[in-house]
Amino acid sequence: MEHVSATAVTDAAGVVTGWSEGARRLTGRTAEEVVGRTARELLAEDPPGPAVAALKGTVVLRHRDGSPRALYVQACPVQGGDGTPTGYVITARPPGSGESTLAGRAFQQAVMSMSVFDTRQRYLRLNDVACRVMGVPEEALLGRHFPDTIEDAEHSRGFNAHLRQVAETGMPVRYESFTGAPSLNREHAWTIEMWPVREDDSGELTGVALAAFDSSDQYWARQRLALLNEAATTIGTTLDVVRTAEELVGLLVPRYADFASVDLLEWVLGADEPPTALEGDIVLRRVAHGSAHEGTPEAAVHLGETDVYVASSPPARALRGGRAALSQAGEPDFMRWVTERNTRAPAGRSYRKGVHSVLAVPLKARGTTLGVVVAVRIAHPDDFGGDDAVLGEELASRAAVCIDNARRFARERTTALALQNSLLPRGLPGQAAVEVAHRYLPSGSLAGIGGDWFDVIPLSGSRVALVVGDVVGHGIPSSATMGRLCTAVRTLADVDLPPDELLTHLDDLVTHLASDDRDDEVAELGATCLYAVYDPVSRRLTTAAAGHPPPAVVLPDGTARLVPLSAGPPLGVGGLPFEATEIELPEGAVVALYTDGLIEDRDRDVDHATGELCRALTARTDTLDELCDTVLKAVLPEEPGDDVALLLARTRALGADRVATWDVEPDPAHVAATRQAATEQLAAWGLEDASFVTELVVSELVTNAIRYGEPPIQLRLIRDRTLICEVSDGSSTSPHLRRAHAFDEGGRGLLLVAQLTQRWGSRQTGSGKTIWAEQSLEPPDF
Predict the structure, then answer these.
(1) What is the pTM of this model?
(2) What per-residue confidence (pLDDT) applies to 77?
(3) Helices marked H in 98-182 — which ranges?
(4) How many angstroms separate the CA atoms of 682 and 691, rounded?
(5) Read out DSSP for 465-533?
(6) Res 623: pLDDT
(7) Angle, to 10 degrees, between the axis of helix 216-234 and the axis of helix 386-423?
(8) Backbone dihedral angles phi then psi of residue 617, each to the nearest 5 degrees
(9) pLDDT tens for residues 195-210?
């Protein structure tokens, strides 16, 4: 056997019977010296047990010159006729020497890690890549049990479990793992395939082979894609600028960076217009940051503080260039920036130690730069690269759009709220009919500010109008429409129309607005309104509603109920009547008017919420303001989905001692007697100072009623915060002021009344009209 390969043949007892020329060259021993001796005599030390059991492995032979030589040997049994081994053919080669066959060289030089194990998970063969991954030569692993060659960790236990699974089932396995290896400085992603190795003739399973492909690039590409997908669902969940910035930071740390921050230009957080250019040092305000360490010790700028980024810093370069700016350890600008951070906040120096890469990406949306996001890597072993910059720009772009949307929403919300507040009553007018308290809570939902409003309008005869309304919809158009309706109600109230007639006119107005193409908001969404008038003399409350919830009334005995009301159609429907309901209330009763945001919600039953409202109104409180807070706390959910307006009014009554009434005969001769009766009543009330003006007003109004009106005629004086003189007659013709010419005999009476009283007017009644005038009871200031 003089082939160049190192080959030896032994019998079943281990006695050498053949010796090749390659074996002589490898050991220095000739065939004459070896044949007839046992193979064990040629060894410098006993072979390892696993190698003997596997018929392959590394053994140490004694060279002819006496030096030990480590050789990789593999034995192939020679079987007899009965199937038992009659001898062995043994091949040997130095460890790490080249393969002699094409298949062997292909295995050894494969670009992926390849290994072969026996059915007991012992190494039989490793290629060059597998040895580099393990960090040791092949001979150090051959014959050894896999768990003995690697740390006891979850990934190694999983690897061994898969080896056993293939050996036991004979089925191939493919799986992915993200783990490190003894010779690698960081974790890698691996795609691992294991398959059974069988004998050609018998099909007996004799080993398990595996190939492990380093799929880290594909893994990180999938991670970047997953990060983008997650950004679509986790960034911009609210229309809040700061919260959106926090969501971006939470997405970046710790998977993408060890520290991240978001700084915005000042105008983004206010109402100022954006600057025209970003040059030189740039001032930004920190709105969010996060760290892999608790408490964010790396941060040199506190939340809410401003920071000046010098022109050479990565954030300033990113803002000026409009592209991601990469900076690595060793670069002058990078080192200056880190030094400035350490000088500014030395307490975080130890946490910044090891910082080696910074990525700054501008936040741009709709062509406008809003700020910058900065990502820093410290413990993360890889520097930011080109792929990271592309990912950062994509994430920043998505976040910038969400931040800009939040900014625009905040700006519109602020504008709508300012508009609405300017239209709502700032201070309720002085009147004696009711004591009032109110609350208005704008919605915090993404839909924006709604069109809820309320009002308290003093009317003639010490009466008062209570109003609540709601323009369904949100935003500035809704607030603007609310302002128009609120003004219209005040105008119609000044005409002193009954509640049902007032809503009819208001319905006509909304219909006209809806027909205007510029007012799509009203046309599509409509409005509701509740209008009530309380008369403290008669103690009667007259109410009419246009698609609005009925008011609630709490009587002095503590019982609460809803006013039985026929709720007409919402405003803008047109063509349908409104009905007024009149009830008498005792003094001290509380009337609650509210918008539907208080009781209606998609997750609440309206009847249940209304019952909670009535129960809350019966709570014992010292003031109406406290009762308002109690009602809102008891009835509203934690996060109301709509605006809420609540108006509470406690009724007062004007007793008979404060009202005087006379029937007047339709004869001019009775004017003097009526004037005298009024003067005597003023004296009884202690209001002699008002006698002169009152005599003139009574004379003029009674005379006009006799001359131009129709019976019955009645005079009424009311002593309230003002002195009110009312003259009623059966005619529906209303008087009006006119300019009297020099030679006219009349036409100056009403002009004198208007000049001498605070205000005057007329209102239609069911049987005619009433002309009234009010005088101040306070002495004039001179």
Answers:
(1) 0.59
(2) 84
(3) 102-108, 128-134, 154-169
(4) 7
(5) EEEEEEEEEESHHHHHHHHHHHHHHHHHHHTT--HHHHHHHHHHHHHHHHHSTT-HHHHHH-EEEEEEE
(6) 92
(7) 0
(8) -70, -20
(9) 999 887 778 898 899 9
